[in-house]
């Protein structure tokens, strides 16, 4: 029987996830000096650490739309999607799935 988390999150090849994580990490490091000093892991906070602010979120969403072909809706602009690197990666997987 599948766990709820397996049903909600599409199965994406590991190499695709790694490529998306590398792309995201590179963007965040260019965007924010705070990101350069951190080892970006799933539990790395994006908002409270200062890596992302409101302008950074807009730039990030534009970047994700252009680079990954993700369609962004107004409803996607929630704090839950940007709280940590892991939350952002889960958002990317949902949109790509």
Give a quick precis of the structure.
With 97 residues, this protein is mainly α. It has 6 helices and no strands.
Question: What can you tell me about this protein's structure?
Answer:
This protein is mainly alpha-helical and 97 residues long. Helix content is 60%, strand content 0%. The chain contains six helices and no strands. Helix 2 (14-31) packs across helix 4. The protein is globular and about 30 Å long. Residues 1-7 have low confidence and may be disordered.
Secondary-structure-derived class: mainly alpha
Quick one: how many beta strands? 0
Low-confidence parts: 1-7
**Approximately what portion of the residues adopt beta-strand conformation?**
under 5%
One letter per element, helices H and strands E, the order comes to HHHHHH
Mean pLDDT figure = 85
Number of helices: 6
Gross morphology? globular
Helix content: 55-70%
Main pleated-sheet profile: none
Distance between the termini: 21 Å
Using only C-alpha atoms, the radius of gyration works out to: 13 Å
Helices and strands in order, then pairings?
Elements (H helix, E strand, L loop, with lengths): L3 H5 L5 H18 L1 H4 L17 H15 L10 H4 L2 H12 L1
Overview features:
0% strand, globular, 60% helix, 97 residues, single chain, mainly alpha
């Amino acid at each position: 029987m599948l766990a709820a988390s397996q049903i909600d999150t599409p199965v994406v090849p590991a190499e695709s996830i790694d490529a998306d994580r590398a792309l995201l990490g590179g963007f965040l490091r260019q965007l924010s000096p705070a990101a350069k000093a951190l080892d970006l892991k799933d539990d790395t906070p994006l908002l409270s650490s200062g890596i992302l602010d409101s302008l950074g979120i807009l730039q990030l969403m534009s970047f994700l739309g252009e680079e990954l072909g993700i369609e962004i809706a107004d409803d996607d602009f929630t704090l839950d999607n940007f709280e940590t690197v892991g939350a952002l990666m889960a958002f990317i997987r949902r949109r790509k799935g």
